Amino acid sequence: MNILELSEQEIVRRNSLHKLRDMGIDPYPAAEYKVDAWSQEVKANFNDDQEPKRQVSMAGRVMNRRIMGKASFMELQDSKGRIQVYVNRDELCPGDDKSLYNDLFKKLLDIGDFVGITGYVFRTQTGEISVHCQSLKLLSKSLRPLPIVKVKDGKTYDAFDDPELRYRQRYVDLIVNDGVKDTFLKRATVLKTLRNYLDDNGYTEVETPILQSIPGGASARPFITHFNALNIDMYMRIATELYLKRLIVGGFEGVYEIGKNFRNEGMDRNHNPEFTCLELYVQYKDYNWMMSFTERMLEKICIAVNGSSQSVIDGKTIDFKPPYRRLPILEAIKEKTGYDLEGKSEDEIRAICKQLNMEVDETMGKGKLIDEIFGEFCEGTFIQPTFIIDYPVEMSPLTKMHRSKPGLTERFELMVNGKELANAYSELNDPIDQEQRFVDQMKLADKGDDEAMIIDHDFLRALQYGMPPTSGIGIGIDRLVMLMTGHSYIQDVLLFPQMRPEKVAKRDKEEAFTALGIPAQWVAPIQKAGYLTVEALGALDRPGKLFQDLLDINKKYKLGLKTTTDEVKAWVDAAAAAQQAGN
After folding, report:
1. Residues contributing to the annotated binding site for Mg(2+)
2. Is the model's pLDDT at 439 over the cut of 70?
3. Kind and range of the H or E element at 333?
């Protein structure tokens, strides 16, 4: 890496790295460092009366240092929290050689470095439980400075709180911001509790293909890739449904998968194109059973994460204790809009949309129109867990017809905090009915609906062998974690959310400058001075300023280069001439 690409602090740290090696200290040792204690546990179990003092071996990242002559303090951050460490020069270096303290600890150690220490636990005169360091070993040298977040009198200074940086550099966010790691530990608790609940009920976790020749199981736009070996286009799965149902056909009592789905759609506070979903299918059950099962499961998860059935998000307390309200979707629409859509045709519903001042287009069928009305006027109003049930058949191409309500299906969506959390059916197992619904979906595709389902002939073949009565559900894990941890943005519960590419300033290659007669060794200093392109250099009206900037850079970075005012002016003139010729 060119030295001009580094900040001053980065240069200092790299110089320290070289000095450590000159001292015979490996800044990145390979040997195991045995750790037998962690910060939170040490502080929780400390006993003032314990004799002899407890000996510990700990390791972590240096987060703060207070150098005070022969005695100093540092703050060590391990995977559990932080603890103060007292370092005394003569105890750390009992012999004549004091370099471990005077050189390594005081001069070459930086905030962000990893160290291992051994010593005993004690309480300082100010009452803080600390470790009295008796040995210190450098375990990893940090070459970039951490943002230092300061808290004084309840106020936070220099916070690392820019969302763009936090999500893009999650590793820094986890280091310096309290509570971030806790969110992802809670996410792990959600997944662990979910798995345990499903396993305890006798259901089998399975894995199905992510690369699929036909994207099925949902209405969504897929990602497309190319499989070179077969020379065919493949799709990243949008759902696991159709493969899991094949396993029910094959004889499994209940199967589930917790995995990634991919939908080539927008990004916002509630959507990421790559997301985690649970899908569960159980034979001989229906959607009424699945509603009761889901209520019990969510209550158990909330208690595991929060200690009670309640969670707070956006200032609202949401209670996952059963039972939840069950409301037919057409009744919900009538309740919120005053329009009764039962028995209405597509044209009649389209006219209602216009009366509601909604923007709809000709590609939308009856199901899509109803979905748009519900999303616009109803969805956001359901804060407490509410099952929206009995969807029209046009909205549910994989759902069994309602046993007593013609034109409706046995489907529910669970709404919580104004968003869909789960989608579930009494699964359609009539292969003839299923084929016709696929045909209807293809008609929508012909009209331009790029989210309509494609006919999956192998799935139809599987149904023709016979699938028992089955209930299935899909739950968005990311949204579930948002609800359980009180976060309003999906990016806050994804370790590495999808981000737009980083903005990179346009920078001409070295050859563009040398073609003007500029020596190659001066190109990097010119760009360091802020003139990244020939165009920027040619637009400069004060060559003398550039000359002075180059002198400062040359001196600061000890480059040993030489030039004159006239040479610099000639470079600027050449760049300006090149621009005029190009125009």
Report:
1. 413, 420
2. yes
3. helix 329-337
